[in-house]
Structures are given as structure tokens and as C-alpha cells.
User: Fold these one by one.
Assistant:
Number 1:
Amino acid sequence: MDDLKFLFEPEQVAVIGASASRGKIGYSIVENLLENGYKKPIYPINPKAEKILGLTCHKSIASVGGPVDLAVISVPAKLTPQVVRECGEAKVKGVVIITAGFKEIGGEGLKLERELQKIGHQYKMRLVGPNCIGLMDTHTKINASFANGFPEKGNISFISQSGAMVIAILDWSLHAGLGFSRFISLGNKADLSEIEFIKSCAVDPNTKVILVYAEDVTDGEEFIRVCSEASKVKPIVILKSGTSVAGAQAASSHTGALAGSNQAYDTAFRQSGVLRADNMSDLFNMARAFSTQPLPGGNRVAIITNSGGPAIIATDTIEKSGLRMARFGKSTLDQLREKLPAEANIYNPIDVLGDARVDRFQFALKKAFEEDNVDSIIVIHSPIEESEADNTARAILELKDSYPHKPIFAVYMGGRIMATGKEIMAEGGIPTFTFPESAVTALEGMVRYAGFKKDNTKETALPLPQVDHDVVKATFYDVLKDRRVLLLAHESSKVLEAYGIPVNRTYLTTSVEEACSISQQIGFPVVLKVSSPRIAHKSDVGGVELGLHNRREVESAYHRIMERVGRYLPDAPIYGIEVQKLVDDGIEVIIGMSRDVQFGPMIAFGLGGIYVNLLKDVSFRLASALNNRQSIEEMISETKAYTLLKGYRGQKPADIETVIDAIYRTARLAQDFEEITELDINPLRVYSKNAISVDVKMTINLIE
Ligand code: ACO
């Protein structure tokens, strides 16, 4: 059920701030409602006017005297709260606030916007905007906006955070002949955001594909929840702008520096089945594809062309993408060989040659449609003469109807000669492009979405791990009490151990005797390191002694460290000496965590060691998604580290099970403790049996 039906299918609409003066926004709204076929009551509200565009005016919403589903408001900002309150009193279900001058100007505007939110909340009335163009639905024929024009009827919904984008795309669509079901301008999102509208468009029977232009998302967790459900029903394509790297620059950990907010958006979109468009043309090319074509059954593409060059470009682009060139079966090859000229290429791409007339295209296309190893087709036509291009377009359309289950795209290269052919194709519902790369990008989007729908079986969540919250809480308490945010090694090792993440336990000792007896206890050889919140690079000040084999060696190493550190950094507070077991070499991987403001903890996995940021062999997932084996395995398998772990060049395979478990537990830790801002387990050394975290960097924050 559409929770926002009162916006897209209102029984009555009031326009508050309606004006009889042509050129004013209040005039355009009434005119748009009247002119685009809305047949239900329209109530212009204006305290001074008697009639507007032939409609009787009311002094206020209260004087309408009957129910009103939707009110569109275009009075100056300072009058808006009062008008919205009157709408609440009159039990209006939703208001579209066109007026600008709120949050976007800060100060007083922000205060006014908060007031609007409060009033909406008080009357349980939904708000669109403020600072928006309004909304349109071509099927219910409502144009509750001041935009100039109304889109052609179609099955694409466009939700935009930018009002200018709505106006520009609307105007372009009228020229490009692209049909829309809905246009929604979000404005400042004081109440309703992309989340509610995605939900609404997902259940709208007239919408086949949902496009979003977003600068941010309102609530990361809810966004993922809603999109994950909606994308099971129909594709969502988002162009996200304003991806700042500021967050990444501010990070101090490896993971934080690699992640950044753009990565978080990428990860969140992917996780919830949302396709991300890189630019406006990809956004609308994908829209065109989804709105007209069936979903491909797989990624195997056949190309039919009358020219070599463009086909090579298309093949190269396909090879670089997630698509594959189809390999034809024997029977198809035999038939192509028999009917096409000897000079034609019968292998994919099928080159029907420059002198090809419509019959050759038609024949090759039929064979591609009938070939089981082909999931989709791209026809590339380079100009020969206009009539041939037009005839081929008609022939393609005719054939397409007999094979409704395979998507087909056309690349009509050129301008003047190809223009009519392109129009014929567009009218017949075949996405047509001028260059092959755009066709491949649009098709790849479809294949990715089809894959998401197919894989979308629910994974069974792993059982909750046995963990000790209290130890973690107590450790964080002590760190913060000591006015620190960075944990010392013995503290982070305690936290990891409490969560069952394999770690080389670090013990803080404060005397030579204690260091010797701990060493004896954990077993030689051991490592000694100075422990001080002021010493980040311990080796640089002689604060590390490796490979100590007996009590005597530990004793003298202890004294040496104390002496050297005292000499180099006489003022640094020394908490003691850390004792660890010396661990063997192994495959070094990193498990990291950074926290995104929108989407929460994000986990990274990849090749570890000191070259992490140089190699950038890392895959990311939001911690919330890492609750099942398949997701974690998939995350690991995206990295080169996975090749090493499986046993590269005759090496024994490493203990991937322990890595999976460690990632799972790290994700759990990150979700359970919001105060952890960054975490690098680097390296986690992985052996053929078992793994161990050797170095851990964890920073925390005070949670109010
Ligand atoms: N109830 C009903 N009508 C009222 C009330 C009331 N309480 N008070 C005033 N009005 C009437 C006015 O009398 C006037 O009608 P009139 O033309 O008959 O005199 C009408 O409401 C509008 O009021 P004005 O004071 O004339 O305001 P104006 O039309 O100049 O501006 C507007 C109002 C358009 C809302 C302006 O404040 C504004 O915000 N403009 C920017 C809108 C915008 O850009 N939105 C963002 C879109 S996103 C983008 O473009 C990229």
C-alpha cells in the first residue's frame, strides 16, 4: 500500500498563496493543476482575491469547509508556520512547501524549519520540502508544482534533492521523448525524504524504475533497510553527488584513510541492491534500459554490426565490464556461415559488412535471439544511407516483439542520417545510443541488478558469538579516565580477547621481576616494548627488544629499554614494559573498521602489513551486513589476499575459517561499541592452522 497516496492521488488540493497575477509562483501552481488534467476539486486560498483562473477563492484553509488531502504552499517564509498550522487544524494530510528561506539560509531560516517540523509532527501531517519545486504524477495527472511543463506519461520515477535538476530534466525529457510516472522534488527534506518516496514508488504500479539524485541520505540505517526491500521489487538507480574526501583525510588509521564517505555510500548502495550511476547520462541511460527492456538472463552479449571499429570498441568495453562476449553454438555458426557473405565475420561480433541491407541485419538478429548462449544483444549501425537506417530500425522493432525475453540495445552511430532511425527505435521502446560505451554501461547496470535479484536469497545469520561486554566496557572506562582516546597494546589486546578475536596477548609489567615471571608463564621467546601514551613509534626511541630467550635476556632488555627511553624522552610518562610472545611469520592481512556518519561501522579486509595504503587491496562491507558466512566469504574473495590465503604457488592453504570468524567478531565489536571510532588489526598473521593479531590500533571516543 502506498503510504503517500494523499500526495500522488489526492481527492482535493488547496493552493495556499494562490495568486491571480500571472508570473507569480502561486499562479503557476493553480495553472499547472488545472491544465494537466487533475479533475478533482482545487481550492485556491488567498485572503484578498475572489477568483483565480476561474476558480472561487477561499480566505483560508479553514473556510474551505470540507476535507483537503493536499495543500501546496507558496506564501513567504515567515507566514509559512502559521499557514501550516492552519492546515494541521483543518486535518490536511500532506503539505508541499514550495517556499524558500529555511534551513538553506541558516539562522532564522533554520529556526523556522524546525518550527515546521514540530507543527507537522504535532498534527501527524506529512511535509514535502520546504524549498522545493513540488511533485507530479503523470498517471493520476497531478501537477502540484510550479514547473514549466508536464512530463510525458511513462514508467520512470525521478526523485531529486535538487530542484534545478527537476526543472532541467523535465525540460530535457520533453525534448528526448522520455516518459515519466513521477517527478518528486525533495527540497530541504524537513520531513519526507528519499526514503519514504523510494518506498512509495516501489509500490506504485505505474513505476518500473526509480531514479534518485541525492546529495546525502537522511538516515543511513533506514535507507539501507528500505532500499534492500524496494530493490527486490524494482531497480533503484542513484546519482550521488558531493562525495567529500574530508572524512578520509581526517582519519588516522589505515582503514579510515582508505574508506572515506564515498566508499561508505558505494558499500551501502551495493549492499542494498542500489545501482550507482557515475553521471547524469548513465543515470538516464540505465533508466531507458530498465523502463523498456526485460531483465537479461545472464551476462553474455552478442553484437551485430555493419562496421568493425565500433564493434571493437564495444567488445573492449564489454571485456572491461562485468559482461562477457557470447560464444555461439555450432548450429548458429553454421547458419550464419551459410547465409552471410564469405567476408562476413560470423563469430561474435557478427559483422554483416558495410554494404549490408536490412535483410542481413534481420537474419543475424534472428539467429542471435534464438541462440541459447546469448542473454542480450547490441546492434551497432553505422551510417550508410538514411533509408537503410530507418528500415533496419523498423525490422529490429518487428523482430523484438517475437522475442520479448531478451533485451536489445541499438547503437546508431552518427547524427543527421541516423536521426529518424533513432526516433523510430525510441518510439518502439528500444534504448538507442550514439556511442557503444553508453549501451554497454546501461546493459551492465541491468545485468548487475538481475544478479542481485537472483542472489537475493536470505542468508542464515551466524549465531551470536560468546563475548564479554564488561571487560570491554571496563577497559574503555579506564582509558577515558586516563584522558586518552588511543588504547595501549595491553588494553586493545584485552578488548580483542574479550570478543574472541585471536590476539597476541600483551601484558603490562611494572618491574623486572614481573616481566620475567610473565615471560616464563607465556613461554619464550618473548618481545619487550615500552608502554607510554606519548610514544607512538617505539622502535625509534629504542623501546623494543625482540627474541628474548630466557629470564636473563629479559632482565637486561628491560633495563636497556628503560635506560634508552629515559635518555631520549626524559619527560615521557612510562606506564611500564609490555611483554608479548614472539610470533612466527605468516600471511599478513588487515581487518579494519572506520565509522561513517551516515552508515555506521564499515569493515575493511585485505592484504596487511606496512604497504596497506600503497597496495589498496581492500574490500569493504558495512558491519551490519557481516552477519552471515556468505557475505564474509564474498568480502574476502574480492581481494588478492584471498589468492594468498588459498595457497599461492604451492604454499599450504591458510586458515580462512579463522579469518572469517575474526571478521565476524570484529563486525560485532564495532556494532556493540559505538565509542570505537577506528580500529586496525594489522597485521593479522594467518597460518595453516589459526591466526593471530600482532598489532592493534584502536581509538575510542566519549559517548554522551
Ligand atoms: N494565505 C493565503 N495566501 C496568502 C496569505 C495567507 N495567509 N498571505 C499572503 N498570501 C498571498 C499573497 O497575498 C499573495 O497573493 P497575491 O499575488 O494575490 O498578492 C500570495 O500569497 C503570495 O504572497 P507574496 O507575498 O506575493 O509572495 P511571493 O509570491 O512574492 O513569494 C514565494 C512567495 C514564491 C513562496 C517566495 O517567498 C519564495 O519562497 N520564492 C522562492 C521559491 C523557490 O525558489 N523555491 C525553491 C524551489 S527549488 C529551485 O528553484 C531550485
Number 2:
Amino acid sequence: MLSRGTVRVFPSVLELSKEAAREIKSLYDEAIASRGRFTLALSGGETPRTLYEILGGEYRDAIDWSRVHLYWGDERYVPADDTASNYRMARESLIDRIPIPPENVHPIPTSFANPEDAAKSYRDELARVIPLDLILLGLGDDGHTASLFPGPEFNCDDERLVIVTHSPKPPVIRISMTIRAINQARNVFFLVAGTEKSVVLRKVLETKDDPRYPASLIQPEALVWFVDRAASP
Ligand code: 6PG
């Protein structure tokens, strides 16, 4: 069953992030009870930072991190210690603060000479573990999500799970899960905040399957939009 999802509006990013953390914990409980582990793909960008800090803070001891596996929906093709790295942001705000075994952290590789080899390597790793329990996503003001940008390169029917894409803003080279990979998740949460997102959010919620807005093609089994009042349509 594909859905356009549920939109939940909060007074601030902090309130949005606290509720998202509560919902993640309940999905974790459900996954552990039924499958013995919780597979979570993190989003990049800045909006999720507060959520990651909460998970690494008040939820540090409420979650058995040895049963959690972390993946990424996309990555900028830069070294892991680059300030633009999505992995670095998650490491600083979450991973360095929790007792998660290194083998449970599955960053998108960015050390291959050829980014296509990185995409292939992650495609193979993801194929072994999908469907993920939860994928976190952000929304760009051009309607992109993960690193799926509108434009001639975007192929909403791409059969592959992970591909190389090119961002209009640097870092240009990206590695991203595809629409197909994301829609296989049991749950997807969008985290959207800021007045600059209100116009595009309305467009995405009003359209369906519009390649001008890649986020409009995200139609998994269960979809929740966590939105702050500033971004609320
Ligand atoms: C990235 C993200 C990207 C991000 C949106 C929103 O690598 O930048 O995957 O899709 O989620 O651009 O970013 P903000 O949360 O910073 O607004």
C-alpha cells in the first residue's frame, strides 16, 4: 500500500526532533521484538543534527546500539573527515557518543578512485539488507531528497538501488539511494524545517510522481513528514 503519508507540524525543530526520536524508539522496539535488529538510514544536511544529538543524548542508554545498524541515504563524494561529509556530521552528533560497534556502522564509501565503484559497492551492501526498517530524509528547496536532484539526469524509474548523481551545488559528485531503494523501506520519515521549505513542501505534498520534485516520488509503505511551523504549507 503506497501512501502520501501523514504530515505532523511542530512549533520548532527541537519539538520536531524530540517527537521523531520518540517515534524512532518505538520503531526500534517493534523491529527488535520482531526481527532482533533495527536498520536505520540517516539523512544528510543540517536539519537532522538536533535529532541525532537527542538520540546520542537522552536515548543513549535506552537503545541497545549493538542491535542497530546505521546506513546512509546519500553521501557527498568527499573524504569522511571533510566538513561537507554526511558521515562526519552523524559521527560528531551521534556515533561518537553511543556504544555502537564499528561493524554496525555502514557509511557510503568515498575512497574509491571512481565514484561508480563506490555506488556499486554500496548497492551490493544494501541489497543484502533491504528492506530497511527506517530511512530518514530531508527536503531541498528544489524538491530534491537524498541526492536525487530534479533535472535531465534524474531517472525516477532507475532499477538500481544506489547511483552516482551530480548536485547543482558543491560538492557536486554524490552517491545516493534511488527512489526504488527508498520506497522499499518499511518506514520513511522526512524532517523539514525553515521558511525556505514551505513553498516546495506544499508543491511536493500537492503533486504525485512529478519528476520535477523527486521527493514527490517517495511513496513507501509508511511515510511521516515531521515539519516545523516555519516550513508548514
Ligand atoms: C544532503 C542531504 C539532502 C538534505 C536536503 C535538506 O546530502 O545534503 O541528503 O537531501 O537532506 O538538502 O538539507 P537541510 O536539512 O540542510 O535543509
